[in-house]
Amino acid sequence: MPTSFFTGTDYALSLPMILLSLFGLGVLIIDLMLPAEWKRWNAITALIGLGFSTAAVMRIQLGHFADGRPLVGSFAYLSNVGGQVVGSVLMDGFSIYFFYLFLLGAAIAILMSAHYLEIEHEHHGEFYALILFSVVGMMCMASGYDLVLLFIGLELMAISTYVLVGFLRRDKRSNEAALKYLLLGAFSSGIFAYGLSLLYGLSGSTNLQVIAQALQRHYSANPKDPIAIVAMITTATGLLFKVAAVPFHQWAPDAYEGAPTSVTGYMSVAVKSAAWAMLLRIFLWGLYPLRPVYLPLLVFVSVATMTVGNFAALSQNNLKRLLAYSSISHVGYMLLGLIASDNITNKTGIQGILVYLLVYTFMNLGAFAVVTSLRRRDIIGDEIDDIAGLYSKAPTEAVLMLLFLLSLAGIPPLAGFYGKYFIFLSLIQTQHYVLASLAVLYAVLGLYYYMRIGSAMFMRPATDPEPVAISPGMQVALAVTAIGTVGIGILPEFFIRAAGWSLGIQQAGTSLLGFLR
Amino acid sequence: MPQNYVPIFLFVAVVAIAIPATLMIGKLVRPNNPEKAKLMPYECGIDPVDNARGRYTVRFYIVAILFVVFDVETIFLFPWAVQYRALGLFGLVEMLVFLAILIVGYVWIWKKGALEWV
Amino acid sequence: MLHLALFSFFGAICVAGAINLLAQRHPINSALSLIVVMGSLAVEFMLLGAEFVAVIQVIIYAGAIMVLFVFTIMLLNAGEEERSAGSRIAVLLGVPALLILMGLVAWVLIRQNPASGTVAAGALPGTPPEIGRLLFRDFLLPFEITSVLILIAIMGAVVLARKEH
């Protein structure tokens, strides 16, 4: 065991989490002293905290990646396993990429929330503290290289989200959604923990690398061992639940519909990205030796997810439910990337998933920002009827919403296209032609339900005269998401390189820090 | 290992014998003369108005949940205390950070009024 | 030999408590017999050398969780449960299914892992000092994150149950 077990590297690597926790605690304490009309300062404090944390992530990126080698060991209690230092945190490009993604999603969600919470009369500092703490959990999920840290990160994020979903105390739907989400979430966490315990039992370690080595030996000696298969299936069940893949998706529409709209947006991007980060980390690092076993399972889940998500979205009249089902179908596309690529012989699909999650953050949060602004005095505003005639009331917003929807559908000059493009490309590279054509068919189907919203906005008259609620924070949120959606669509090069960098893909003529400088 | 628990086991055995024994002796010695007032549950000298297994107010429930949460916290204090010397100053700092975060939570519930009864 | 005798004795108490839990008609009585189950489980853990788990079993399960159970029962004011006749199918199918399941589990455990021999009690790390070393050195970051997790739990309880203003 190393004598110094909290080194300068450990400090630097945990600094983003430390800063976020400190600011979260700060928001809690400051909130107690703020008079009711000053509650906005909580949002500002939280945003400053996110800013500081971003700076700390940049510091890691610039300081520790200078020699171009990912930082593998930190909190390195198991020094030198098989010639490599492994620790409970693995800070590589993958982690850094997801850190930025979480910080971005949280910042936009906070911008959307301030005015919305005032309308709901639930403007409390806890909201922002919970968002900051959930980001800490997500960071553990993305950078965790140890089952204990991964699980604690997952629970930290999940419990914060349960509370955020039920944040509207007066709204029965919010309470119901929180309860359903809590019960199903706790159940899935239990199954997941069971899987992790079996993995520990098989390998004698909680470290992903040691687990992978042990599974490799185990699998080559005994490929049909039921315990390894049960461990893989239970772990996968927990992970697939968290990303809301069919058949573990039932919680998503209810939780998305009942949650405060800005929280729904946050759940659909940052929380989902974190679940994806952990899923990729476990499937591609820890469970990699079992890839021949889990591949058929993933094909089934992915096809089922695309089918259920797309067909169920067709008949929804509630905007949040519709976007929930669309979000499920997007998970189906992303799973295809994992099926095509194993991150060793082919990285395109994984790169596609990362690009997809980035563009999804912009376009889906943008769409939810518009839905959030429909919540006005006495109007809940989450039905398709409520968005009808938006063009006559707020033309800019209506056009932006159309952009977000077209991007979600994957229409070429917009960002959403590039997410799908890489996934389909990876499928073709690995000769999965049937899956590729199925995915293209479903993408066309998706256009129909997105355009239902579009036609309601432009073709139908407004059902109520009340103007939409656009606060300065919301304007910033809309501007950022719109610039992201259009910008990535027009200049995708930089972002695709960033995703490639995070997976260690060497690009000709680009320095590894190219995307920052 | 298990022999470390011999004193505890003896203690449990003594309790398991002593309590029934004293109750039995009491029952043998005391006069038995039950009446209605004697059998009534004692409630600060006031006649009970309702069944003792009545409904509690929901506020007790928050207290119970907070108790569970802080109880989980004590679990972490326990291995720290037995390793206090080995962990040294750094262990103390770790535990103080751990407690500081929870104390912020405690201050927050207090100021938030979650423990106020009326 | 004494070890085995103690283990079987407390195992029997545990099973008896669990059966009593199901047989009792009043929820409070069921909750109290659950304490017996938890307590004897703690002794079982201790006999297996997992002292820390035994302590957790007493402090968290027999202590805190049971407080929560009892409070919930009192809060809901649950009275005596009514016994419905129960369906015959449940008995006819359920009992054999249970026996088959138990047999299968036992078979898998014995058959599939013949290599896994016996381990002396206390041979595996599980004492509080060892847990302390693991928790405060190797798992430093997860430990500190846990305090944030507990804080979130506190906030959740208060936020979701707060009073209307």
The gist of it:
With 517 residues, chain A is mostly helical. Chain A is built from 20 helices and four strands.
The value of Rg of chain B in angstroms is 24 Å
According to DSSP, the number of beta strands of chain C is 0
Tell me about the largest β-sheet of chain B. none
* Gross morphology of chain B: flat
Order of SSEs of chain B: HHHH
Name given to the CATH architecture of chain B: Up-down Bundle
Q: Biggest interface, which chains?
A: B-C, 46 and 47 residues
* The first-level CATH class name of the domain at 1-83 in chain C: Mainly Alpha
Q: Report the helical percentage of chain B.
A: 55-70%
How many domains of chain B? Answer: 1
- Poorly predicted ranges of chain C (pLDDT <50, ≥5 residues)? none
Task: Summarize the structure in words.
The complex is a heterotrimer of chains A (517), B (118) and C (165). With 517 residues, chain A is mostly helical. Chain A has 20 helices and four strands. Chain A has one domain. Helices cover 73% and strands 3% of the residues of chain A. Chain A has a two-stranded antiparallel ribbon. Chain A has a two-stranded antiparallel sheet with strand order 2-3. With 118 residues, chain B is an all-alpha fold. The model of chain B has no long low-confidence stretch (mean pLDDT 84). Chain C has a domain at 1-83: NADH-ubiquinone/plastoquinone oxidoreductase chain 6, subunit NuoJ (Four Helix Bundle (Hemerythrin (Met), subunit A)). In chain C, 77% of the residues lie in helices and 0% in strands. Chain C contains six helices and no strands. Chain C has helices at 2-23, 27-47, 51-76, 88-112, 128-138, 140-161. Chain C is extended. Chain C starts with a helix and ends with a helix. The model of chain C has no long low-confidence stretch (mean pLDDT 83). The interface between B and C is large, with 46 and 47 residues.
List keywords for this structure.
heterotrimer, A: mainly alpha, 20 helices, B: 118 residues, Methane Monooxygenase Hydroxylase, Chain G, domain 1, flat
Element layout with pairings:
The complex is a heterotrimer of chains A (517), B (118) and C (165).
Chain A: H1 8-33, H2 40-64, E1 71-74, E2 78-81, E3 84-86, E4 89-91, H3 93-119, H4 125-143, H5 147-165, H6 172-203, H7 208-221, H8 226-242, H9 251-258, H10 261-286, H11 291-314, H12 319-340, H13 348-373, H14 384-387, H15 390-393, H16 395-409, H17 415-429, H18 433-459, H19 472-490, H20 493-502
Antiparallel strand pairs in A: 1-4, 2-3
Chain B: H1 6-29, H2 36-39, H3 59-82, H4 84-112
Helix pairs in contact in B: 3-4
Chain C: H1 2-23, H2 27-47, H3 51-76, H4 88-112, H5 128-138, H6 140-161
Helix pairs in contact in C: 1-2, 2-3, 5-6
